[in-house]
Amino acid sequence: MTFQEIVEHIKQSLAEEFVLSVNEQASPKCIEVPAEKLVELMAFLQSDDKLYFDSLSCITGLDNGPEAGTMEVIYNLYSIPFNLHLMVKVTLGREKPVIDSLCPLWKTADWHEREAYDMYGIHFNGHPDLRRILMPADWEGYPLRKDYEEQKYYHGVTVKY
After folding, report:
1. Which domains does the chain have, with CATH numbers?
2. Which of 12, 59, 118, 138 has its CB 3.0 to 4.6 Å from that of 132, i.e. a possible disulfide?
């Protein structure tokens, strides 16, 4: 199945509003979806007999900066039986980046979502254990945000960057 066929299959099976935009120049090709439609779309992509995206390999956070006022969450999906690869992107407001968790669909979402939370401050509603995974539990701020200010000290110890 080609990328265009995947997009058309989504629109015909669900609705036009499930696909905000497509990026055929991206590698892999990418569709952007509304945040409120993410879980429904992903459940469809996972369970549909023609697609069967059985593997969520990565979740990436992206901070577009204070000027843009947005953040993105990008999901990399694979259909192993059909040899398909697809990126799904969601854009969130930067002030309160919140999206529903995909842990009920893919167990691999657990640590990926925790990392996006830890590094960017993106909250995943319904996550079973949303807490820091790389930084200490009491670390201040989110290190991969573009406006992150480095701490000078952590528990009285100089932090060197």
Report:
1. 3-158 (3.30.460.80)
2. 118
